[in-house]
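Sequence in, structure out. First:
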Amino acid sequence: MSVETLERSSTVRKPAPRYRVLLHNDDYNSMEYVVQTLMQTVASLTQPQAVDIMMEAHTNGLALVITCAQEHAEFYCETLKNHGLISTMEPDE
């Protein structure tokens, strides 16, 4: 077995870095609107999950919406912003 073969087979593929999409509380949007927007933006969210996220942001000022690959996180974050919600993303460490 050549050295080249050993190097190639020992390469460890790192999983793509994951990002947290965060929802911030605001004093403008109704609770119902926030829940509907969350469900429209992140199709995998159920209504009870969306309500929990909205209540978490309302109570604590910040809530985790979803943790996912960077490209998806950017899409979710931008979509929430485009619907008038305050959203940021950060690396999931």
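Second:
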Amino acid sequence: MPPARDIVLLLTHSGDHYTVDRVAQELSGRGVRPLRVNTDGFPSELELTSALGGEGGEVLLRTAAGDVRGEDVRSVWLRRVVPPRLDESLEPGWRDSCVRESRAALEGVLDGLAAAGCRFINPLGADAVAGNKPRQLRVAREVGLEVPRTLVTNDAARVRSFFAQVHGHMVAKMLTPLTQSMSGGQPFVYTSAIGPEHLEELEEGLRYSPMVFQERIDKARELRVAVVGGRCLVGAINATGSSAGQVDWRRTRPDECQWTPGELPEDVAARLVRLVAALGLVYGAADFIVTPEGRHVFLEVNPGGEWGMLERDLGLPIAAALADALASQGGTP
């Protein structure tokens, strides 16, 4: 008889809670076995093996709960893949080498699972490609979404010219996300408004790192849209009354504003679904600004973006949608 393939791996890290727990609960109710894998525990707490021989390949995951073979795994949720926890007393060069080797070994195991027929959310390699912010904006514009004027540079003169073009309505942000869970605890650089007084300071900073500069869009509210396959689950937040959160809602205090149910016009939702598919994703968390005139301006889609607050505060069935995709049999979820 063919293997049952009734295990779904949930790859995350030891500080991640709620979202991974909710998906595990939903999977259990669908007759499959969720298995959480804290990637920061490899190689100190987990044993992973991939082998290739004349008769084919083998993947083995050894945990405290027992052994899991690749042929028993139906699908994998790449919730978070983080560097290992290693002894801080290790010599830095050796420690960095161990981190690289551990990541390479984990990638080999995941490749072996894909070769054995496992499905992934998101597909292997898709997050890295889709996470390219300039590419996102280009594809978003191609599918008909409105995007803000954007500049990515480390050229201070170009920043000053762009500042004049947008009449001083400019924000700065990073190209890559830095948070790893709902509770934070990791370095983070918020979207920040740039005024004339910041232009000279930027010149020094740009010597070390390029940044993203965008036209600042007037907002009535902001949307976080969890896209799972062809479904759009939408939350709205109005942080315009918060001095700290006017530019970036993530800087608001919990008592300043709350998530409320949101919606996307059908044509905008359809374009967003096309964008996510064009980027090779099954899941993505997209951010929009809704202007006072009612325009929906696309900002970005994060392949690993947070959605727990939308389920917790609004009851949106995002965990159920992910569980449906992970538990499904057959082709691409």
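Remark: Residues 178-188 have pLDDT under 50 and may be disordered.
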